Amino acid sequence: xxxxxxxxxxxxxxxxxxxxxxxxxxxxxxxxxxxxxxxxxxxxxxxxxxxxxxxxxxxxxxxxxxxxxxxxxxxxxxxxxxxxxxxxxxxxxxxxxxxxxxxxxxxxxxxxxxxxxxxxxxxxxxxxxxxxxxxxxxxxxxxxxxxxxxxxxxxxxxxxxxxxxxxxxxxxxxxxxxxxxxxxxxxxxxxxxxxxxxxxxxxxxxxxxxxxxxxxxxxxxxxxxxxxxxxxxxxxxxxxxxxxxxxxxxxxxxxxxxxxxxxxxxxxxxxxxxxxxxxxxxxxxxxxxxxxxxxx
Length: 296
What we know:
The chain is built from twelve helices and two strands; from the N terminus they run αααββααααααααα.
């Protein structure tokens, strides 16, 4: 049986006092209260849960400090920014590949022809139309007002599509050969690319809405490659539902987009600069020796 919520709101100072009562060390109470004015107490809860000795009483382990919690929060923030940077590069690349191969195989307005796609074509087209209508890009305005087709050409609409919608359009392509041609640009099987795009669209949403990423367990996980390329499967931590496998997917895609890309080195640098326990992120013990993190 549910009960009514009767807890009164607390002041910033009261929150600081409550944390101290639960065993958190806070050297500068005034500064902590100031931080809580700009970072919601409830948001930081996700980061101090890992320091709790007993979740029922919310008592903290000895040595837990407000500074350590904030350190973890700041690491997660920078991790999200790095992932957003990588996902941007991946999204722009896949948009380009998708539009190019559709246009060259089927024509400029193939997205308006149902027989090129699966049963979800109508729903995807309606969603595309919504995203085009919301766009304030000048080139979209120009194309909509000059030409009679229901939607602009594929190489224009791809530029205003969300990653989630792009992943659905890619997966819905009826011809496996075209899906595989696109996936060949990233040296993976087309089913794997479809899975990764879906997963990354959810990761992007988590990052864009400032959600906790560092130790989250994901419901939708990326499909593990089997034999294309044959060494890629060994880079993953099989069975893990945490962000390590996401990072492997992204490092692989980004190296295929640009072999000189140093995004993987930025991930290592961030981990080292914050001295993070990466086991919480699903990293295997031997991760540093794996090729994906040591490629030049």
